[in-house]
Amino acid sequence: MTTLPGSSPPPPSARQRERNAYRRRRTVRRVVVGTVSSLVVLGLAAWVITSAPGWPRVREVYFSGHHARESFPAIWDAFWLNVRLFMTVELIVLPLALAVAVIRVVPAPAMAPFKFIAAVYTDVFRGIPTILVVMLVGFGFPALGLAGVPTSLFWLGAIALTLSYGAYVAEVIRAGILSIHPTQWAAGRALGLTYGQTLVRVILPQAIRNVTPPLMNDFVSLQKDTALVSTIGLVEALRAAQVYQANTFNVTSMCVAALFFIIVTIPLARFTDWLTIRSMRRQGGL
Amino acid sequence: MLRIRALRKSFGDHVVLDGIDLDVARGEVVCLIGASGSGKSTLLRCIDMLEETDDGDIHLGDLELTDPAIDQNRARARIAMVFQAFNLFPHMTVMQNLTLGPRRVKQVPHREAEARARELLARVGLEAKAYAYPDSLSGGQQQRVALIRAVAMDPELLLLDEVTSALDPLLVTEVLDVIRELAREGRTIVMATHEMDFARECADRIVFLSGGRIIESGPPEQVFTAPRDQRTAQFLARHTARR
Ligand SMILES: Nc1ncnc2c1ncn2[C@@H]1O[C@H](COP(=O)(O)OP(=O)(O)OP(=O)(O)O)[C@@H](O)[C@H]1O
Ligand SMILES: [Mg+2]
User: CA-CA 20 to 30 A from B198: which of A57, A130, B8, B144?
Assistant: First the structure.
């Protein structure tokens, strides 16, 4: 309104300076209280754990520095397989799930057979344990001996995870589409947009935004489930850790593998939090 | 009862309130008018502590609302605010909406809260809707429930932000009737509105906001018939001619 160019706000009143000082002190106090209480709780927890009678044994079996260093290179190499696997699967799952979700919601009668197939697909693959899908694809596809069916274990693993996660993600996206208020459809159609244009320009952007947190959650879950391909003989991080453990009878290598999985999950989790908070801010709720 | 002094609020370098002074006496009905974007909602939100102010004081009685050390929950129990739309909780019946605050904030016993809610519903002619969900109510009915939900908390100060602007003209009347009655009861109300006729009829005082300042403040007859400021005259000319 009155953003006069070059005019600077008047200096704050004495009372306002007091208020600002109070807010600053309060912020400092909150940070201090938060830090101190965290340190106390963590310190206490560490003390309780490390002073337990079995602790030296636990440390040797689970957290041995020597075994961690020894097993690290093999697990590091193997972990790249997990990373490539989940990146590939994430890239294929999104469009697949989007297509399945859209097919399931569009009312066009000509789509009926596809709607049926999409419904069966989601029901079946959400129902089967992922590890079973991995085995069925990994052991079954090569036995088919059909031309064009990939034989590389990597791609078999990718197909299995895609089938399983495609079904989950499709349901999340479909829920997102259905959560958009019907007046948004009406508003799009009223503007003269076609059904498809309304879907793509109006409904989907809102739907995807609403379901981003659960979607990210599914991706985190997928990152972990890449470990399942070890069952069909792929040497990924878990299998590499197991190999080391079998030779040494020490599970530190498995903790190293666990650490890898945790580390790749954290950025995604923080990104999801950030997205959620941002959308709350936008709606003026925070 | 409400005393605002030198209130300032900006969003980034966009100054929205540029030194507002306003006193509201107990039982007074003040209508804020002004162009869209003149800061009416912002002023109400500052009073309800929904926005942190940049400078200046707001006092409600002896309580300083701009004091960052106050207990906002307790202070808000003395103020009620009704917004343009989306006031009711959609997952609760009308009755649950009306009794939530009294029961959970004021610890009023269940029966008593329901009895009071029923009495208020009767006053706005909605007894029959006590167990309906907000979705099944018309916009005007929803706003009437929102108003009595605010009243059910017995606030010292009622803030209304364009409570009728999302409604069609037929429904506006029924909501304004409720506000008119609240005004007659002697409640203290500060409301932002574009309903000039209503403001003229019901307000004790009209406050015209423009450029982040109060340009004019006075009894409705004076402001509407003999505005002192050129800008007020222009605004009123545009807004009364339209109707
Ligand atoms: N959260 C915000 N961030 C940035 N600018 C804001 C924010 N809220 C309000 N504004 C700006 O502050 C100004 C005043 O807004 P406000 O909502 O108070 O106007 P108003 O007088 O209530 O208008 P209307 O009659 O249309 O409701 C507007 O220019 C608006 O763009
Ligand atoms: Mg407003």
Answer: B8
